[in-house]
Amino acid sequence: MALAALVDLGFPLERLNSALAATGMQGVRVGAARRTSGALVALGIQVEAILEQPPRRYSEIREIVLRAGLGKRAEERALEALARLAGVEAELHGLGIDEVELHEVGAWDTVADILGFVMGMEHLGVEAVFVSAVETGTGVVRTEHGVLPVPTPATLAHLAGFEVSSSVPGHELATPTGAALLAAFAQPLGELAGYRLIATGMGAGTRELGDRPNILYASLVEARPSPADEGGTLALLETNVDDRSGETVAAALALALDRGALDAWATPVTGKKGRPALVISAICRPDLSDLLAEEIMRATGSLGVRVSSFVRIAATRQLLEVAHAGRVFRVKVGPYSAKVEFDDLAAGSAELGVPLLELGRDVALAFHREHPDLPLPQ
User: Fold this and answer.
1) Per-residue confidence (pLDDT) for residue 103, from 0 to 100
2) What is the C-alpha to C-alpha distance for residues 187 and 182, in angstroms, rounded to an integer?
3) Torsion over CA: 196, 201, 207, 213 (sign)
4) For residue 151, is the peptide bond before it cis, meaning its omega torsion is within 30 degrees of 0?
5) pTM higher than 0.85, yes or no?
6) Phi, psi at residue 347, to the nearest 5°?
7) Residue 273, pLDDT score
8) The predicted structure's pLDDT at residue 228
9) Alpha helix positions (H), 125-167
């Protein structure tokens, strides 16, 4: 269902079938078709195997993933999910991870699910996954290890820390594979402060639940920081560099902002032995300081980052949109001023053939007509 939702969002299924062919698993192919679930129609995924596929050990599945020709990040994500699956199975059955023979979670369809999920994330540019309460279902399920309660012990082990619900009787609605993908990549939805909705995909399951559609929604969103993220106690990260090019420093600043820094800049200074140098600085929420410091050291080759705390007082702000000349422009609005996003103006100026300053004035007036009670963009 998760794979179906990603395909519905735009991930081309042909790429997954090409990767499966590269693994050497003969006769395994994934197809998609619309199906009705309850009162709704959503995309369903079917994984077919012409030849019988045997149970596989963790080490065998790992080799399958390595033969799939994935990009580095997608490969790391797939291996992480598989390691979580095998690790939980090993712990539950008292075995070493390489001794575990994965039955249900090692089947060919699960390999396709995991490869498709990580490839879909990569194709859509997904940086983080957030989930609402996970519906596990109730009842019992027959497995290679006998009859087990729903949710199974493996599913529960993966879902530690997530909000769960068990309101649908008689069905297993969260499997160890799905739960392992959440454990590897997802966070509770409450940690996503605000966002702009881009698109929504729907993945249909095969079971009929009677009183509701059996559909998983996947919404692709652009995260927005909340006012709380901009103020309060923040971390300041700094490092001195005197042996890196301007291009490298610019790339490091861009990376810091991409990884969650609230601001990043470089200040020219005179370093030791009278050498011209730059102080690379970034501010972020305290919980991101370790990750961001590691990213800065990796990007610059620096041997250390100084981290200190400070309190910032931030004005409330909001990001609004205004339509002009067939385009949408974002406007950042505070209590005392407003400003049209420069990137939007630059793109609009190039597309419309209108000078930047002239377009900025026209957009500001259009915004003022819609919001006369807010500051006029400057």
Assistant:
1) 63
2) 8
3) positive
4) yes
5) no
6) -65, -40
7) 87
8) 45
9) 153-158
**114: number of Cβ within 10 Å:** 26
Residue pLDDT, tens place only, 36-70: 998 899 999 998 887 777 777 888 889 999 999 99
Q: Which residue positions in the chain have pLDDT lower than 70?
A: 102-107, 191-194, 224-231
Q: Which two tokens stand for residue 357?
A: 């300053």
pLDDT mean across residues, the chain: 89
pLDDT confidence of residue 9: 96
In the chain, where the domains are located: 2-223, 228-312, 318-370
Angle (CA) 313-317-322 rounded to 5° is: 160
Alpha-carbon distances, residue 183 vs 126, 155, 179, 248, 345 (angstroms): 16, 10, 6, 35, 41
Strand partners, 199: 220
Angle (deg, nearest 10), helices 72-93 and 108-124? 140
DSSP-derived secondary structure letter, 376: P
- CATH of the structural domain 228-312, one choice from 3.30.450.90, 3.30.565.10, 3.30.70.1380, 3.30.70.330: 3.30.70.1380
